[in-house]
Specification:
Number of strands: 9
Strand content: over 45%
Structural class: mainly beta
Number of helices: 0
Radius of gyration: 14 Å
Order of helices and strands: EEEEEEEEE
């Protein structure tokens, strides 16, 4: 899905095809993830990402995002810092950070990466 500059979309209604998380990343449950790119802004990709309930390891990219639904925590391997996320949370991730995502209520975010 790509939208031109003069059209709005409801990020909560954007269709996302979910796929199971690779087994080597799963720490609990049976999470699935997926995303849809909405548009680009210069070199930035703007999209919507979703993860279902469960826990997984990830390696991040440079990204800013706004959570529009759900609940999760992100734990950073480097220092055990924990970020609590819920609708309205705005966060930044840095390229190469190793994290653990624990989703307690399917989470959906709009991201710029």
């Amino acid at each position: 899905m790509t939208i031109p500059g003069d059209v709005a979309v409801a990020a909560g209604a954007v269709e996302i095809i979910l796929e199971p998380v690779a087994l080597e990343q799963v720490l609990g449950g049976a999470p699935s993830t997926g995303f849809t790119t909405i548009t680009t802004l210069g070199d930035l990709e703007v999209g919507v990402w979703e993860m279902t309930v469960g826990s997984m390891r990830d390696v991040e990219t440079d990204e800013v995002f706004v959570v529009i639904a759900g609940r999760a925590t992100v734990t950073f391997d480097a220092d055990d810092r924990v970020m609590d996320l819920s609708a309205g949370s705005v966060a930044r991730l840095s390229d190469g950070e190793r994290t653990v995502w624990t989703v307690t209520e399917t989470i959906r975010k709009v991201y710029l990466a």
